[in-house]
Design a protein that fits this description.
The chain is an alpha+beta fold. The protein has seven helices and eight strands, in the order βββαβαβαβββαααα. The strands form three sheets. Strands 5, 6, 7 and 8 form a four-stranded antiparallel beta sheet that branches. It has a two-stranded parallel sheet with strand order 1-4. Strands 2-3 form a two-stranded antiparallel ribbon. The longest helix is centred in the C-terminal third of the chain and has 16 residues. It starts with a strand and ends in a 6-residue tail after the last helix.
């Protein structure tokens, strides 16, 4: 039996975002099977989907969440930290897109009080970058410059010229679209400084192709900097796939 738990960043399936994971080229500890990057489902619903499509011999019973209603997250919703780098709802709301910064030479704010909702680099021109971020992709989020001292790699101990993010309307904010738009804007404004970076983990000791694993597509860095961005609008197809497995 699996006790279900709510998805803290929301379960409105119209807000699901791709790209789909290329499991033949990019499967890893970060993502194993072909689902959207932001799936907008509960843990129990994903378990039901995987049981039906990947491990059909498993015996699975999901204990539903009492009185749970499917929908968007609220900025004042209660939040239980899910990891040492995910201890507040603001970080969780931006994480689907801002986790992509782990694949480039920009500090993603780990070790500060707002990981992923704060980022920067010693060479970053925050005002110039803010002017280049797609306004449509920025719906539902407030952006302002904020310098900080990096507590993690890259640039540990250095002053980073940075940006602070605050999600104000989770019902309209599309995190993956914003994250890709942000990378494109950094390339546009700082193309001479932006580089792909290795991200060393126990699951990937060499740290290679981390951005591919994060985004779920091969050659992710090259595709983004050359404006060959993968499709993120996958909600209709994902909803039809998930319909038999939904609990709420």
């Amino acid at each position: 039996m699996l006790a279900d738990r709510r998805n803290p960043i929301g379960t409105d399936l119209s807000k699901a975002e791709g790209p789909w994971l290329d499991e033949f080229a990019c499967a890893s500890f970060l993502g194993r099977w072909n689902i959207p990057l932001k799936h907008a489902c509960t843990l129990g619903e994903l378990a039901r989907f995987f049981a039906a499509t990947r491990v059909p011999d498993v015996e699975l019973e999901v204990l539903k969440i009492a009185s749970y209603i499917r929908g968007d997250a609220g900025i004042n919703d209660p939040f239980t930290p899910t990891s040492p780098a995910m201890h507040n709802l603001q970080s969780a709301l931006v994480y689907p897109g801002l986790c992509l910064l782990e694949g480039v030479n920009v500090n993603e704010g780990r070790g500060t009080d707002l990981p992923f909702a704060r980022f920067g680099a010693p060479w970053l021109n925050a005002e110039r970058l803010m002017e280049s971020i797609d306004r449509v992709a920025s719906e539902g989020i407030r952006i302002h410059p904020e310098d900080f001292q990096a507590s993690s790699k890259p640039y540990r101990g250095q002053l980073c010229k940075g940006i602070r993010l605050k999600v104000t309307e989770p019902s309209v904010f599309m995190g993956v679209r914003f994250g890709i738009s942000l990378l494109k804007a950094i390339q546009h404004t700082h193309g001479d400084r932006l580089r792909e970076r290795p991200y060393h983990t126990h699951a990937n000791p060499t740290g290679s192709s981390h951005l591919d694993r994060r985004l779920g597509v091969r050659y992710a860095f090259q595709r983004i900097v050359s404006d060959r961005v993968p499709e993120t609008d996958v909600s209709s197809m994902w909803r039809s796939m998930m319909e038999p497995h939904l609990l709420y």
